[in-house]
Amino acid sequence: MAAEFFVLNTGARMPSIGLGTWQIQPEAVYDVIYAAVKAGYRHIDCAVAYRIQKELCLLEDSYIELQRSVGLALKKLFDDGVVKREDLFITSKLWSGNHAAEDVPEDICTTLEDLHLDYLDLYLIHGPIRIRKGTTLSPENLIPTDIPATWKAMEKLYDSGKTRAIGVSNFSCKKLEDLLAMARVPPAVNQVECHPVWQQHKLRKLCQSTGVHLSAYSPLGSPGSPGYSGPSVLSNPIVVSVAEKLHRTPAQVALRWGLQMGMSVIPKSSNETRIKENFDIFNWSIPENLMAKFSEIKQVRLLKAEFAVHPQSGYNTLEDLWDGEIAHEFPEGGTQHDDHSEFLRCFS
């Protein structure tokens, strides 16, 4: 049976399933988080870029109060005695415009204020992509990263106790190896796209060998989200077949596959029934003969972040951005599947 927690290289216990908040409508955030925690979730994953941490949201050039935000939902959960702060694992991420060493402390302080928290459990560099401070995430605002300088500032946050662990997101094998080579405090987590259609074979092996926990965002392939295209995870014949054999939903099978591969999974849903279904992945398992079937699935990255390929970013091609890890990882007997997905420019 898969564990309900993974132990990070800091000694902290990270719940093996978390609630993703990307693309949840701001007006639904409060109810979704409250329902998820009541259902048993103890990990909430959020970010400045998701625009739902705070009570204020920009809408038609004016600020309106959003009573149903992550921060207020957490505050109510604590105030109502549903959970204590120490019962939850809260992840957030460094905004791409605040990579400068002097801006990193300000970024986490703003995040903590937005979330009504004194500390984070995990703070991630959202990706190896940087923009000029005070601008939006669009090609004309891109500038080259300086990950070593940013990471040193992250290490100081870890030293200060404002975050109990630090890590990265969307880092390829090469970028993770480069970081590990210079880090005083090694990253505890690398959060990346991972699901049966993009299994991250090389990256999983690297993380296992270096003590970096691999956490899967979009573990269901993010169905219905703009910017994701290509093969459907939940309609994949192997996923569907295994689900039918086990009398489970395709989503449950995809999530259970992730746990059995040693990853935490961060599904997103705003539907209370599916939130509960997604959490029901612990008291059963996929047998070895059916797990072996997943190696037959053709592999393709669904989220490519094509917008980041720009002369100002330092990435001239997608190969540069992902260091070749795009659609070249195929299991034995697999063949290449062309993918033309575009990144959702939802952060601009």
Widest sheet: strand ordering:
3-4-7-8-11-12-13-14
Low-confidence stretches: 55-68, 328-348
Reported for the largest beta sheet, the result is: 8 strands, parallel
C-alpha Rg, in Å? 19 Å
Features:
two-stranded antiparallel sheet; 348 residues; disordered C terminus; 8-stranded parallel beta sheet; alpha/beta; 11 helices
Describe the structure concisely for a colleague.
This protein is α/β, with parallel strands linked by helices and 348 residues long. Helices cover 30% and strands 14% of the residues.
Describe the structure.
A hairpin with a 2-residue loop joins strand 5 and strand 6. By secondary structure, the chain is an alpha/beta fold. It is globular and about 55 Å long. Helix 1 crosses helix 2, helix 1 packs parallel to helix 9 and helix 7 packs across helix 8. The strands form four sheets. The chain has an eight-stranded parallel sheet with strand order 3-4-7-8-11-12-13-14. A two-stranded antiparallel ribbon has the order 1-2. The chain has a two-stranded antiparallel sheet with strand order 5-6. The longest helix is centred in the middle third of the chain and has 14 residues. The chain has eleven helices and 14 strands. The C terminus is likely disordered.
